[in-house]
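tokens incoming
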């Protein structure tokens, strides 16, 4: 959870709270009881963060979008610089996943 916290900029207590709030977010625990986030769960954390912090959806709205009950409003087109940054993050996360 510490690595995910650092990657996302979210405190561990926020991640734990999101597990209760967003039913789609269910990282497994290893034998020591530590949460192990797979790539899809990490992507979901970034998606929830985007919807809450950047797009200003409510928790209920995020849940509706994640569950397919509500269609998300169209996002503006990303700039080339933003796409480059996202690609660098994707490469970094791939490398991190290999280490886990």
């Amino acid at each position: 959870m510490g690595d995910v916290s650092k990657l996302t900029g979210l405190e561990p207590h926020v991640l734990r709270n999101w597990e209760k709030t967003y039913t789609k977010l269910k990282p497994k625990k290893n034998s020591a009881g530590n949460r192990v986030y797979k790539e899809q769960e990490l992507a979901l954390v970034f998606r929830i963060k985007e919807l809450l912090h950047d797009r200003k959806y409510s928790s209920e709205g995020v849940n509706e979008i994640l569950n397919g009950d509500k269609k998300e409003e169209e996002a503006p087109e990303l700039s080339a610089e933003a796409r480059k940054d996202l690609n660098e993050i994707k490469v970094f996360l791939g490398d991190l996943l290999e280490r886990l």
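note: The chain has a mean pLDDT of 90.
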